[in-house]
Amino acid sequence: MSQTRLLSFAMNNLIAKLKQLYAHFFDLLSYFQSPFLLLVRLYWGWQLIISGWGKLHHLDKVTDFFTSLSLPMPAQTAMAISCLEFFGGIFLAIGLLSRLTALVLTINMLMAYITADREALFSIFSDPDKFYAAAPYTFLIASLLILIFGPGRIAVDSLLGIPTSSERDGATK
């Protein structure tokens, strides 16, 4: 009976230590959340700025492409999407109105899949590589990351007092 108690004590002690190590590891890891989100915002924000800038300087080509997709008001849509990508990229990069910007960009990328990459969208389960290779994919993932997790603490939103997800959750990192 004493061996059973000793073994039970040892197992409980081991489990308690593992829980403590687990908690410390993820506390340490959480310090990287804001820098990671900053890198996501800076990189993909810059990519959106470049994409939007390119579209703004070639509106005739963008309008022709939108016309080929039978989008309504292709010239106005081209201007709107170009501005959205350019200014949305700036807002995303600096972390201004981050979640609202990410929401609009997410909708934009979903619409890009539906209108311009429909085949890739419908192959999400049958041929995932085609879905991942489509142009909107990485922009969509970056937008979803910021929409879901917020911009992190290193953002203009934080300076303006707009709560980030970590502040809302009561985290102190």
Compact overview of the structure:
The protein is an all-alpha fold. Helices cover 79% and strands 0% of the residues.
Order of helices and strands: HHHHHHHHHH
Largest sheet, strands/sense/barrel: none
List segments where confidence is low: pLDDT < 50 over at least 5 consecutive residues. none
Fraction of helical residues: over 70%
Query: β content, as a range?
Result: under 5%
3D architecture notes:
With 173 residues, this protein is an all-alpha fold. Helices cover 79% and strands 0% of the residues. The chain has helices at 2-30, 33-56, 59-68, 74-94, 98-116, 118-122, 128-133, 136-149, 156-159, 165-168. It is elongated and about 85 Å long. The protein starts with a helix and ends in a 5-residue tail after the last helix.
Write the layout of secondary structure elements.
Blueprint: H1 2-30, H2 33-56, H3 59-68, H4 74-94, H5 98-116, H6 118-122, H7 128-133, H8 136-149, H9 156-159, H10 165-168
Features:
173 residues, mainly alpha, 10 helices, elongated
